[in-house]
Amino acid sequence: MLRVTDRVPDTPSEAPPASPRKTSRGAVRGRRRVHGRAALLLLALPATAFFAVFSYAPLAGLAVAFKNFSISDGVFGSPWNGLDNFRFFFDSGDAKRILWNTLSLNVLFIAATTVCALGLAVMINEIRFRYLRKFLQSSVFLPYFISPVVVSIMLQGLLAGVGGQGGAVNKMLNIFALPSVSWYSEPGAWPWILTVVKVWQMSGYLSVIYLAAITAIPVEVYEAAAIDGASRWRMALRITVPLLAPTTVTLLMLSVGRIFYGDFGTIYAIIGDNGTLFSTTDVIDTYVFRSLRQNGDFGMTAAIGLFQSVVGLVFVLVTTFVARRFGRDTRVF
C-alpha cells in the first residue's frame, strides 16, 4: 500500500532533475550554435550599420513633408502644416503632366529593356564560339558604365551636330530624300529617343543577369530536347525563356518598385532646362530638382519624395500579388 509520501510526482515542479550528461550536451550544442551565428552576425554587421545610418536614420526627415520647413528652425522646430505641401503639388497645373510622363516613360523603359535584354541573353547563349561569346558579353555591358554627360554629347552629335545644325541622323535622312528634323524642338519624338538610350545603356547589363540564370539550367534538359528532335530555336523558346521566368519576375518587381522614379541623371543630362521638351520629358525627379533650385521649397520636395516611395511600395505589393496569383512557379515571396 502506497503512502502519501511515496506518490509519483504529477507536476513539472516535482519532476526528477534532468541527467547532468544530457544537460551538458545541450549546453555544448547551444554554445556551438551561438558561436556559428556570431560569425554570420559579424559578417552582416557592416551592411546592417550602412543601412541603419543611411537608410533608416534619415526616415526622421520625412517630417519635413508635413511641415512649413525653415532652415533656421530645423526639422523638428519648423511648424506643422498638415497636407499643405501635398496639396500645393497636386493642385498645380503641372502635376498631371509630370505624373503621366513619369509613368509612361518608365513603362516604356521597363518593357523595352526587359524584352531586349532577354532576347540578347538568349542570342549570346546560342553562340558556339567561346571567345566570341565572351567578347560580346563585355561589349554589350560597356554602355552601362558610360556617364550620362557623355551620352548627352553623343546625342548632340547624332541629332544636332556642330552648332545645332545637321547631325548624323539628319544626314542619313537627307540621303533618302527626307527632310531634316530639329530634334531638340520636337517633344513628341523624345520618349522614343530616351527609350532607345535606355535600351542601349541597360540591355547589356540585364543580359548578363539573364546569362547567369541560364547557366543554372541543367544541361540534361537540352540533351533530352535534342534527342526528341527539337531545334536550337525551339529549345530557346520552349526551355530557356520559360525557365528564366523567375528571374524576369524578380527584375520586374525591382523595376516596378521604382516606376515613379525618373532616371534623373540621364534625362537631366540630355534635356537640361530645355522647356520646349518638358511636355513629354519632364518627370517627377527633374521637376523636384528644378523647383528646389528655383524656389527652395524643401517641404514640397519632401512630400513628392514620400509620395513616390508610397506609390512604389503599392506597386511592389500589387506585382507580388499578381505573380503569386497567376504563376506559382514565378512567385518570389
From TrEMBL:
Primary residence = membrane
- Output the Gene3D superfamilies linked to this UniProt entry: MetI-like (1.10.3720.10)
**Which stretches make up the ABC transmembrane type-1 domain?**
99-319
- Using the record's annotation, list all stretches that form the Integrase catalytic domain: 187-333
Sorted alphabetically, the Gene Ontology BP terms of this entry are: DNA integration; transmembrane transport
Q: One cellular component GO annotation, for this chain's record?
A: plasma membrane
List every stretch annotated Disordered: 1-30
**Where, per UniProt, does this protein localize?**
Cell membrane
Transmembrane residues, as ranges?
39-66, 98-120, 141-162, 202-222, 243-261, 298-323
Bilayer disposition of the protein: Multi-pass membrane protein
Q: Which UniProt keywords apply?
A: Cell membrane, Membrane, Transmembrane, Transmembrane helix, Transport
Its family remark reads:
Belongs to the binding-protein-dependent transport system permease family.
Q: Which PANTHER family match?
A: ABC TRANSPORTER PERMEASE PROTEIN, LACTOSE TRANSPORT SYSTEM PERMEASE PROTEIN LACF
Protein name in UniProt: Carbohydrate ABC transporter membrane protein 1, CUT1 family
